[in-house]
Design brief:
This protein is mostly beta strands and 126 residues long. The chain has a single domain, classed as Sandwich (Immunoglobulin-like). Strands 3, 5, 6, 7, 9 and 10 form a six-stranded antiparallel β-sheet that branches. Strand 5 and strand 6 form a beta hairpin. It starts with 11 loop residues before the first strand and ends with a strand. InterPro entries: OmcB-like_DUF11 (IPR001434).
């Protein structure tokens, strides 16, 4: 008897965009994070960690799971599963507290990837 085992492969598209750029000091900007499962296997324990620069202040995080700020680091609660071809979204709102050329960085992790997937979005604050 011959058996064939078919297993899926993980693949992900991770996008981070700022909805406004440039942003005036004292105003808020929203970063939209999208995770698209382009693979053929379910992703599990999808988690995002974002880092704000000192010129930004955390306001809120809404989306597929909740997120909390710990200093200048924002950590989302893990998303238990993301099925193939599905999309998960988060919106992180920050306040500009100083002018500058800032970088909003985000790292995506899941059980299927040993190394984090990193994205950076540049924003001009004036």
């Amino acid at each position: 008897m011959v058996r064939t085992r078919v297993s899926g492969i993980p693949a992900v598209l991770f996008e981070v965009i700022d909805l406004e750029d440039p942003i005036e000091v004292g105003h808020q900007d929203t970063y939209e994070l999208r995770v698209i499962n382009q693979g053929s296997t379910t992703l599990t324990n999808v988690k995002i960690v974002c880092t704000l620069e000192p010129s930004q202040q955390f306001v809120s995080c809404v989306g597929a799971t909740n997120g909390q700020a710990q200093g200048n680091t924002i950590v989302t609660d893990p998303l238990a599963t993301l099925s193939p071809k599905d999309t998960a979204k988060w919106q992180i709102v920050v306040k500009s507290i100083a002018s500058g050329d800032v970088r909003f960085t985000a790292e995506l992790g899941s059980d299927q990837f040993q190394r984090p997937i990193k994205e950076t979005e540049a924003t001009r604050q004036y």
